[in-house]
Amino acid sequence: MDIRVRYAPSPTGHLHIGNARTALFNYLFAKKNKGTFIVRIEDTDTERNIETGIKSQMEYLQWLGIESDESIEKDGGYGPYRQLERLAIYEHYAQVLLDAGLAYKCYCTPEDLQAEREALIALGKDQLHYSRKCLGLPDQNKPYTLRFKVPDNTDYTFNDIVKGEVTFKSEDIGDWVIVKQNGIPTYNFACAIDDHLMKISHVLRGEDHITNTPKQMMIYDAFKWNAPTFGHMTLIVNEQGKKLSKRDESIIQFIDQYKSLGYLPEALFNFITLLGWSPQTEGEIFPKETLIELFDEQRLSTSPAKFDQEKLAYINNRYIKNLSLEDTLALCRPFLQEANIGINQPEAWYLSLIAVFKDRLVYGQQIVSLYEDFFKQTLTIDAEAQALIHQDGVKSLLEDFSKRITSLCSPTADDYKTAIKESGKATNMKGKMLFMPIRIAVSGSMHGPDLPQMMHLLSQERVIKHLQETLKTYK
User: Does the pTM exceed 0.85?
Assistant: First the structure.
């Protein structure tokens, strides 16, 4: 069997982390099985579609490295790949169902339907199904929807890749609308037709779609088509175990935001793959080619996928560490320029800055806060650091070090390193009591990046100024 899978977003918003995961798992499944990965745009919700929705989906899938084999940009012979361009197809199949008595025209207004629903609620009914009062009516010169006539006493059972055997009963599903009054098909009707005509072999999607499955199976049965294999992935939850909501501002959720912050697409690809799937091997850092090779749909998690922000930070940091200094600078430069950091400085200065902070970077924009934290104009030393630098011998160390660097001409990082060693010998200070007091006196912090590199970037003038300010605290 040829493996053909699809990611079918609705352009009602930008590419979300949950949708990106759906696309990614379909992509990995297709690539692992030498199959075809299709991107189909389901744009029939015309009232909610946004102008940049399709662009966001296509652009950021590409940025993540999720490349389609067929899409609105790559015709593979099964198009069109936008549902609004397929309306004639849906119209044909709707007419077939209507002619066969498997669908009927419903002339009820929204007000009629609401009144019927409220009456059922008042009676305490559990099932608020449509009453079928339009079934069998002669044609009328009034607006209508098309409803699918749900078969009586029928079970819809499928073997889900993630959840195992799942069964829905027809009596739990009322006659549902397949074509709206404006002639546009509803999601489940169009989706089932498209999946069949595009020869989709497997449907991998979030578990919030599982209740759509029986309706789609009804369409397959009505046309005597074979249904694809379904797999419904568990939802993504936040660190409190609650379903990831787009209103949850504690987590960055849209792919364009990650790009804007300077995350690496390869790292995000790696991280998203581990949201609800785990390889058989140990580790968390896997290049794309390895993930394709390792991917096994049977290892999709049956438990909710926790969005672990610390893991994301760790993975992105690891990918940044593997970049060259030049590539890391390319990632960070736009943020430095926007913050007016290093204006008119030579390229070597920028590279030195990156060398100092590279191993600590979680994402590109963070370079600004790291720089500002350690190179702030005002020197402030907290109580703990004050206590350390007022221990015996520290004042003499700082005085000696200050004299040595004052005599230097345009010192380099190596010059500062030599001066530290010489001051240590001269004052008999070493280890923590050599490096930490100098670091505190220069930066105000007990911890930070490579000390000689940091002083070189601070400039000789500011290093001396900070040392003098610190020495004034001694009585």
Answer: yes
